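[recover] target loaded
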């Protein structure tokens, strides 16, 4: 009679631990994604400033154009300074 309760309690503990770990990983993924897009935005700004200061413009062949993706849109309101 005690064995089924022990198995149920162990299963519940494993389920709660897995749920906590999944939530932590989801938060970390969201944070890393936000940091990636902020870094990409800042890199573009710095490249534009360097081109402005040097007076050189990049030729279209030297700048790789990534393929269009649905998740490539970055609203400027979400980018914090």
């Amino acid at each position: 009679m005690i064995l089924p309760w022990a198995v149920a309690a162990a299963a519940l503990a494993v389920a709660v631990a897995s749920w906590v770990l999944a939530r932590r990983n989801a938060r970390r993924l969201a944070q890393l994604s936000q940091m990636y897009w902020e870094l990409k935005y800042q890199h573009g700004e710095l490249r534009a400033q360097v081109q402005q200061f040097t007076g050189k413009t990049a030729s279209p062949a030297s700048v790789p154009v990534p393929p269009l993706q649905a998740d490539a849109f970055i609203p400027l309101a979400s980018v914090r300074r």
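[recover] notes: The chain has a mean pLDDT of 85.
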